[in-house]
Backbone:
C-alpha cells in the first residue's frame, strides 16, 4: 500500500472516466464493465495500479453485471459510513480490479442530501465524490496510477451532475436510431457548459456507438447526425453481439465470450480494444500489448 502523498501529485496519478447518457439501455453498464476488465489487465496498461469501477446508478446493475450482486457500498463510502477498502469488492479473474457497488440507497442518499444537508449549504456532492476518488490513489503503489470508471444512471440526477463535474473524460454510449441522439446531446451540452464554467478545456468527451449495425441505413443516418453534432468525437462503433446481449448477471466479459460468437460481423472485443487504445492515447496511458480476446 502506498502512503498518502501531496494533493497535486495525487491528481496526476488519478484518471476519472464517467460513462453517461440520459438515455436508458444504451450500454453504459456494459461499457463500464468491458473497459474496466480490459484496462485492468497488466498486459494492457502497465502503469495502472488498480482500476476502480464505481456504480453511481441506484439500479445497481454494475455489480450484477459482474456477477457480484448489488450493495449500498457507494452511498456508504460517499457518506463516510464505512472505510473505503470495505466498500470495494474484488473480481476473481481480474487481480487489479476493484468494484464499488451501488443500489437504491444511492437514490435515498441523494434525496436526503438535497432535503437536509444540501439545503444547509453542506459540501456539495461533487466535492465529496472527488474526495472519495482521491482516496483511491492511496491504495495504489507510489509509482502507479489509479483509474476510476464510473457508471451512471440514465436519469438526470445530483450524482450524475457531480460525476460529470469531476470527470476528466466523459464517455457517452449511443445506440444509433432515429431520435436516439437526444440522450447524448443533453450530456454534450453539459460538457460544454461545464467547460465554459470552469474555463477547463481539458475535459475529454467521446461518443461510443453501441449495438451498431453499419448495414442498416437508418443507423448509418443516425451516426451521420451524431457526427454532425459532436464532430470527430465519435468512436468506432461496437457492433451488436448476440453473446454480449445474453451475459447480464453471469460475470462474463467480452474478453471471454467473443470466441463463442463466430460471426465475423461481431468483433466486439476487437472494437473495445480500439476504444481502449483511443482512451489510452487521450489520457496519456500506454497500451503495452493489444488486448486479444481470450
Ligand atoms: N454490443 C452489444 N450487443 C448486444 N447487446 C448489448 C451490447 N451492449 C449492451 N447490450 C445489451 O443491452 C442491454 C442494455 O445494456 P446496459 O445495461 O449496459 O445499458 P445501460 O445503458 O447501462 O442501461 P441502463 O440505462 O438501464 O443503466 C443489456 O441487456 C446488454 O447486455
Ligand atoms: Mg446501466
Residues:
Amino acid at each position: 500500500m502506498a502512503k498518502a502523498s501531496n494533493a497535486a501529485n495525487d491528481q496526476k496519478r488519478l484518471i476519472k472516466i464517467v460513462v453517461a447518457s440520459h438515455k436508458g439501455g444504451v450500454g453504459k453498464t456494459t461499457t463500464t464493465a468491458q473497459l474496466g476488465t480490459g484496462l485492468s489487465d497488466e498486459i494492457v496498461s502497465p502503469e495502472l495500479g488498480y482500476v476502480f469501477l464505481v456504480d453511481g446508478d441506484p439500479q445497481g446493475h454494475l455489480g450484477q453485471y459482474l456477477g457480484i450482486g448489488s450493495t449500498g457500498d457507494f452511498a456508504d463510502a460517499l457518506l463516510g459510513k464505512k472505510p473505503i477498502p470495505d466498500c470495494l469488492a474484488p473480481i476473481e479473474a481480474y487481480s487489479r480490479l476493484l468494484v464499488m457497488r451501488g443500489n437504491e440507497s444511492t437514490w435515498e442518499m441523494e434525496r436526503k442530501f438535497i432535503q437536509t444537508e444540501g439545503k444547509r449549504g453542506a459540501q456539495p456532492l461533487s466535492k465529496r465524490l472527488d474526495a472519495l476518488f482521491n482516496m483511491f490513489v492511496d491504495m495504489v503503489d507510489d509509482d502507479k496510477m489509479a483509474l476510476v470508471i464510473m457508471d451512471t444512471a440514465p436519469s438526470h440526477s445530483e450524482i450524475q451532475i457531480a460525476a460529470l463535474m469531476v470527470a476528466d473524460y466523459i464517455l457517452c454510449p449511443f445506440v444509433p436510431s432515429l431520435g436516439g441522439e437526444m440522450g447524448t446531446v443533453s450530456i454534450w451540452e453539459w460538457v460544454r457548459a461545464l467547460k465554459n464554467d470552469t474555463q477547463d478545456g481539458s475535459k475529454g468527451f467521446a461518443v461510443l456507438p453501441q449495438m451498431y449495425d453499419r448495414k442498416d441505413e437508418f443507423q448509418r443516418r443516425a451516426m451521420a447526425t451524431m457526427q454532425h453534432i459532436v464532430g470527430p468525437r465519435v468512436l468506432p462503433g461496437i457492433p451488436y453481439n448476440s453473446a454480449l446481449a445474453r451475459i447480464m448477471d453471469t460475470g462474463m466479459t467480452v474478453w471471454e465470450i467473443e470466441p463463442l460468437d463466430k460471426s465475423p460481423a461481431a468483433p466486439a472485443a476487437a472494437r473495445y480494444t480500439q476504444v481502449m487504445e483511443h482512451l489510452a492515447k487521450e489520457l496519456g496511458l500506454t497500451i503495452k500489448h493489444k488486448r486479444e480476446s481470450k
User: Anything to note?
Assistant: Strands lie at 14-19, 48-55, 89-91, 94-100, 145-151, 169-174, 204-212, 238-239. Residues 7-283 form a domain with the Rossmann fold fold (CATH 3.40.50.300). The chain has one domain: 7-283.
